[in-house]
Design goal:
Distance between the termini: 19 Å
Helix content: 25-40%
Largest sheet: 8 strands, mixed
Structural class: alpha/beta
Number of domains: 2
EC number: 1.4.1.1
Protein name: Alanine dehydrogenase
CATH class of the largest domain: Alpha Beta
Binding site for substrate: 15, 75
Strand order of the largest sheet: 3-2-1-4-5-6-14-15
Radius of gyration: 21 Å
Pfam families: AlaDh_PNT_C, AlaDh_PNT_N
Oligomer: single chain
GO molecular function: alanine dehydrogenase activity; nucleotide binding
Order of helices and strands: EHEHEHEHEHEHEHEHEHEEEEHHEEH
Length: 370
Amino acid sequence: MIVGLPKEIKNNENRVALTPGGVAELVKHGHTVYVQATAGEGSGFTDAEYTSAGGTILPTIEEVYNIAEMIVKVKEPIESEYKLVKPNQLLFTYFHFASHKPLTEAMVASKAICLAYETVEKKDRSLPLLVPMSEVAGRMAIQKGANYLEKPLGGRGILLGGVAGVNPAKVLVLGGGIVGTEAAKMAAGLGADVTIMDISLPRLRYLSDILPANVKTVMSTTYNIREAAKNADLIIGAVLIPGAKAPALITREMLKDLKPGAVLVDVAVDQGGCIETCKPTTHENPTFVIDGVIHYCVANMPGAVPYTSTLALTNATLPYVVKLANKGWGDACREDEELRKGLNVINGQIVYKSVADAFNMSYSPVENHL
């Protein structure tokens, strides 16, 4: 198969979908890999390294899209890329369709095959291609939150871990999945007073067992969220419903009760955000303020640490990329239920129900296309 590796062009997105090692693995299986010039530079990988791995460098993104049967990316195509996508071309990347109707409509119109990292799902309901970036984003959320709590950046001027004789900051984490767990670990490690909420009692029992003593577990209800938010210095939004829009747990009306200079970090922004006042921001302009509360809503947080993120992502995606290249998307998805759940759009039809429901668009079961 001919595989294309374009350079990411989303604002301040420095990740790349495959390391040179990943390219070498595809070449070993007999596939041809075309890499856009400088695609890996932001992550610390040179064109020479891709060439040594067996890849072929092409100067422009147009050439990569034009020749490739499968495009492997990190982030969804942005508007300038829509016209480059071809019918029957397989795109394997993070899409997060349910939060972006123009992207959904463009990919339906392209008649391409869109296989989304974030909805590839194992039998135990875990999301193997979301895990590595969720780990990065959860840990980064605390780093960024701690930073924006500093007074020169508009925050309350509170040190996350406090010092002897001074109470630490209060951190509220909404969601006990991978992002929330990693955020709680990081915040606890820095000495913060942490509360983590989830709607699953078994999950809360598990988190209570594994997390440090300075982390409290609380059932997630509207009342509990409202009361905890009033006292929080830093709130992390870490709620995910696979393939669907995240629910708004911190509402616009709640902001008036939050502490002035409190910080909200919405890691769920890719899926529409679990903070009602959230809107996607960039690493270039990461924050905005509403009612004296700082909102940090960068939609590609792991892009700020691209070396770590690219290695972590390739570790997770490469086995699936090789399977798709070896068998073609149809046979691979027929044989592998995990990959089959990643299919979101096929030849002009939405085949993932949550995406169709998000925009009241027509839905066609994936089985009709395999």
